[in-house]
Design goal:
- The structure is a single chain.
- The chain has 150 residues and is of the alpha+beta class.
- Helices cover 37% and strands 21% of the residues.
- The protein has two helices and five strands.
- It has a five-stranded antiparallel beta sheet with strand order 3-2-1-4-5, with no helix packed on it.
- β1 and β2 form a beta hairpin.
């Protein structure tokens, strides 16, 4: 995630920001889109001097992006592959010949199971870090506070 945002409040190293409208959002009808200006919090690990009205660049930390990629892409794909190959030992356990239907069922079952586990983990145990302010695009001296979509 890389985006521009306007700071609406800054306290104790945490900036409350509103994402700014981008060209890709012009035809968006989503209620959570940046056109609607849903505020969220971002950390300031580089200790920039931030003020309300500043336009900043925010990014998700690399570790968060890697974890997200692994959990959302790699784990389900590996689970589906495992389901394909585990169909044969399961069929042997029940004394039947393995068929393509069994392999397909194995793929779908393990894919659904991995998706369910990822969903539960993301809602309970995983505490991924906040987006980070990685640069100041315009300081309050050059941008009017009224231009911030409050």
């Amino acid at each position: 995630m890389r985006d521009k945002a306007c700071i609406i409040k800054y306290e104790k190293g945490i900036a409350t920001v509103i994402p700014l409208l981008s060209d890709t959002c012009i035809n968006c009808n989503s209620p959570t889109c940046s056109k609607r200006g849903t505020p969220f919090q971002a950390s300031n690990p580089q200790n920039f001097t931030l003020k309300s009205g500043d336009i900043v660049k925010i990014e998700a930390p690399a570790t968060t992006q890697i974890a997200q990629g692994f959990l959302s892409l790699i784990l389900p794909i590996l689970s589906a592959i495992a389901g394909y190959f585990l169909a044969e030992p399961v069929a042997q356990l029940f004394g039947v010949a393995v068929t393509e239907s069994m392999r397909t069922a194995g793929v779908l079952i393990l894919l659904a199971l991995s998706t369910g586990i990822i969903f539960i983990l993301s809602k309970t145990l995983l505490k991924l870090s906040k987006p980070q302010v990685t640069g100041i695009i315009h300081s309050i001296e050059t941008v009017q506070l009224e231009s911030c979509p409050l």
